[in-house]
DNA sequence: AGCAAGTGTTTTACTTGTAAAGTATATGAC
DNA sequence: GTCATATACTTTACAAGTAAAACACTTGCT
């Protein structure tokens, strides 16, 4: 049986016989897997009234286990400053994060999880991981490991480019 | 050297020692690879004044090599009908696709590439494939093949779910 | 024929994200 | 001290997508 990307590659071969479609086999599939996974995995978040991006902010605050400034959050979650501003407003209004001014630098503020925020992320995270695991469940564990390793190689490569960096 | 997702996994391990972070190794990396690739690969499209989604419509018309209705385009490009309507308006205004009414069914129209549209996609496609190839170039060909195969397995699995289907 | 139900497409109202400009504060040269 | 420049963050104006409603037409039942 053939996946949708293999079908698309064959269609291209028919109209452009000379074309080397090999890169599509990786990148097309990666795109398609991403979209299907995202669609599936965002559903449980919606039930808690959060978008993926908001969840990522709570996650960053929890896993780094300390206060973060808006720009640190932007870097950690690979988001623009403007996007972080909006999300923090929402998370503050919902009482999930709290803001504290910096003592020395008036431009900066520090965000932390409230009790409620921490409770929420600690409930959601295992849910999310389990859900992710269920999406992969049809793949043998050894295949999952191979896939993780190959994606790690690729990611390291892509991170080497001009692109964004963490922390 | 460690990729960003491996770092995040270690951070989670520190604050939640019991947590099985293995699913993140696949899904987190897949997400991150997707975002970096998208960011990189969309740049050449912008130079031609197209978004990825508009490019996908031209691509579908080219590779299927026949007229398509808006709903066929929606299915082929995994987009909502509303999104397709907007994109077709833009592509028509730019003279890249042409619309023709159906003889028998007044609700339906048929879209085809104009000469200009076909010239554009035939120029862009090899560019895009080459660009994709360059993103993967740091990975040995054999590793690329393995990655494509594993992603194909995963994709087949994910397509089996309730989700969207092609053609 | 006439109407209920279904299908194909577009429109509307809204959400989310971005780039660029704007605001406020800090830093270093003089 | 004060000014130019840099930094941190927010606001604004806009782009692009969606879900649900609206619209237009077709189909099949009677």
Order of helices and strands of chain A: HHHHHEEHH
User: What is the number of domains of chain A?
Assistant: 2
Strand content of chain A: 5-15%
Outline the biggest β-sheet of chain A: 2 strands, antiparallel
Secondary-structure class of chain A: mainly alpha
Mean pLDDT across every amino acid position of chain A:
94
Beta-strand segment tally of chain A: 2
Query: For the terminal residues of chain A, how far apart are their CA atoms?
Result: 43 Å
Tag the structure with descriptive keywords.
disordered C terminus, 2 domains, mainly alpha, Arc Repressor Mutant, subunit A, homodimer, two-stranded antiparallel sheet, DNA-binding, 167 residues, 7 helices
If you had to describe this structure to a student in words, what would you say it looks like?
- The structure is a homodimer of 167-residue chains.
- Helices cover 68% and strands 6% of the residues of chain A.
- Chain A is elongated, with a radius of gyration of 20 Å.
- In chain A, strands 1-2 form a two-stranded antiparallel ribbon.
- Chain A is mainly alpha-helical.
- Residues 162-167 of chain A have low confidence and may be disordered.
- Chain A folds into 2 domains: 1-47; 49-159, Winged helix-like DNA-binding domain superfamily/Winged helix DNA-binding domain (Arc Repressor Mutant, subunit A, Orthogonal Bundle).
- Chain A has helices spanning 4-15, 22-47, 52-64, 70-77, 81-93, 115-136, 141-159; strands at 97-101, 109-113.
- In chain A, helix 2 packs across helix 6, helix 3 (52-64) packs across helix 6 (115-136) and helix 4 crosses helix 5 (81-93).
- At the A-B interface, helix 1, helix 2, helix 3, helix 6 and helix 7 of A face helix 1, helix 2, helix 3, helix 6 and helix 7 of B.
- Chain B binds a DNA duplex (30 and 30 nucleotides) through helix 5.
């Amino acid at each position: 049986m053939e996946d949708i990307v293999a079908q698309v590659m064959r269609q291209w071969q028919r109209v452009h016989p000379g074309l080397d479609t090999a890169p599509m086999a990786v990148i097309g599939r990666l795109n398609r897997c991403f979209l299907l996974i995202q669609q599936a995995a965002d559903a449980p978040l919606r039930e808690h009234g959060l978008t993926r991006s908001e969840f990522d902010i709570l996650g960053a605050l929890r896993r780094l286990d300390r206060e973060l400034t808006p720009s640190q959050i932007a870097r950690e979650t690979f988001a623009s400053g403007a996007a972080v501003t909006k999300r923090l407003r929402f998370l503050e209004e919902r009482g999930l994060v709290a803001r504290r001014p910096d003592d020395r630098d008036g431009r900066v503020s520090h965000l932390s999880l409230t009790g409620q925020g921490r409770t929420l992320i600690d409930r959601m995270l295992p849910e999310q991981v389990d859900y992710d695991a269920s999406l992969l469940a049809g793949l043998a564990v050894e295949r999952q490991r191979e896939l993780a390793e190959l994606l790690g190689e690729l990611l390291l490569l892509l991170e080497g480019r001009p692109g964004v960096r963490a922390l």
